[in-house]
Design brief:
HATPase_C_sf; phosphoprotein; alpha+beta; 20% strand; transferase; kinase; EC 2.7.13.3; five-stranded mixed beta sheet; six-stranded antiparallel beta sheet; Beta-Lactamase; Heat Shock Protein 90
Length: 413
């Protein structure tokens, strides 16, 4: 913690030299430093939302000063404050750093009588004359303590149990603001990348599709097909598949351009599954895949994106089961939950080890593929689609002996 007059310079404006021998950097310090970096706070102007929270903390605790301290391995960074100008000080001088490794609320009526703070320069008069001190830790969703929400005064004081709980609640709110800031920034970067990718692939996807559609139409008009009803039906199905693919490309490009906004409509899941199986008919027939669909429910979702999701999951199930040398069996199921729906795709393939089940959702990451071709985009696409619906996706063992991919979609209000 640092106490300074509003216009005074930082105690350590440059490299923040410590007042004692530098402490050794621990693995915990590295984890904390990485967590802090994800929020992009250091060196930026205070966020209005954070300033509002410190003002509320000071008012709640009836003190003139409050601060949000972010503490890395060598310095304390005040990212928002009321009652003084935010600054930077050496970690060795920080009162909050003294309690950071045991992250819980701290309330001290008189810091001069507390062994953790009695010799601190902010208490002794060297820098400040802090008496009353209280702090609540800022703990990320991953469980990393990155700093504190701190209130203090030059007069002795105390907090009621109600005000103590209020300080904890405000600390949670600080972390929520930081998380929202991080997610917003990451989504912005992700959507920028997706829009760029969409522009790059649109030409490559559309040209061969246009040519394919032209050949199908040309073949369908051939007089030789007049006495070949089976070929005529096959061409009709190919034309229908090409039309759906064109619609899918259009919708996906629109999805990329609008930054991930989904268009919720009622979707009959078993009917959607049938269109997916029709699109994958050639692969299913060639592999001898047995497919069971038990999904007679209606969900609220973006039909195009949901079709892409199912198509990726079923195609993966068939591909990896075939590569394992078994006749693929795939089951598409869906049940209604309180407030949403759960969709599952099961297979009898080799399965995915528990240690790999999170990693395979990353872009360009693949599990034990056994020589199966692919870029590792499918499951990453699935996760993006599910997250755009504010849902969840995961992997577990399947009753069929292979992999079960489950998706939970929340009902929209």
């Amino acid at each position: 913690m640092s106490v300074q007059a509003p216009d005074s310079p930082d105690r350590y404006p440059d490299d923040v030299p410590p007042t004692a021998e530098p402490r050794a950097v621990t693995a915990q310090d590295v984890t904390r430093r990485d967590a802090i970096a994800e929020y992009g706070l250091i060196g930026r102007p205070p966020e209005p939302d954070l300033e509002g929270l410190v003002q509320l903390a000071a008012t709640l605790c009836d003190v003139p000063t409050a601060v949000i301290n972010i503490i890395d391995d060598h310095a304390q960074h005040q990212v928002a404050a009321v009652g003084f100008q935010p600054s930077v000080c050496a970690r060795e001088d920080s009162m909050c750093a003294a309690v950071l490794d045991d992250p819980r609320r701290v309330v001290v009526s008189d810091a001069r009588t507390d062994a953790r703070f009695a010799d601190n320069p902010f208490v002794t008069g060297e820098i400040g004359n802090v008496r009353f001190y209280a702090s609540s830790p800022l703990i990320t969703p991953a469980g990393v303590a990155i700093g504190t929400l701190c209130v203090f005064d030059e007069e002795t004081g105390d907090l009621t149990p109600q005000h103590s709980r209020g300080l904890d609640l405000l600390a949670h709110q600080v972390v929520d603001v930081l998380e929202l800031r991080r997610i917003t920034r990451e989504l912005g970067q992700s959507n920028d990348q997706l829009r760029t990718f969409a522009g790059q692939i649109s030409h490559d996807l559309r040209n061969p599709l246009t040519a394919l559609t032209g050949f199908i139409e040309l073949a369908a008009d051939s007089p030789e097909l007049a006495d070949a009803p089976q070929a005529t039906r096959a061409l009709a199905r190919a034309e229908s598949a090409a039309s759906r693919m064109d619609s899918m490309i259009s919708d996906l490009l629109d999805y990329a351009r609008i930054g991930g906004q989904v268009r919720h409509t009622p979707v009959q899941l078993d009917e959607l599954a049938r269109t997916v199986l029709e699109d994958l008919d050639a692969a299913l027939v060639q592999s001898g895949t047995e497919v069971d669909v038990d999904a007679g429910i209606q969900v609220s979702a973006d039909a195009t994106l949901l079709r892409v999701l199912l198509q990726n999951l079923v195609a993966n199930a068939v591909k990896f089961s075939s590569a394992a040398g078994v006749v693929p069996r795939v089951a598409i199921g869906a049940v209604e939950l309180a407030g949403g729906w759960r969709v599952t795709v099961d297979d009898n393939g080799p399965g995915i080890p528990a240690a790999d089940r999170e990693r395979v959702f990353e872009l360009m990451e693949r599990g034990q593929t056994g020589g199966v071709p692919g870029l590792g985009i499918g499951l990453s696409t699935c996760r993006r689609i599910v997250e755009a619906h504010r849902g969840l996706i995961g992997i577990e063992d399947s009753p069929l002996g292979g992999t079960r991919v489950w998706v939970v979609l929340p009902a929209t209000s």
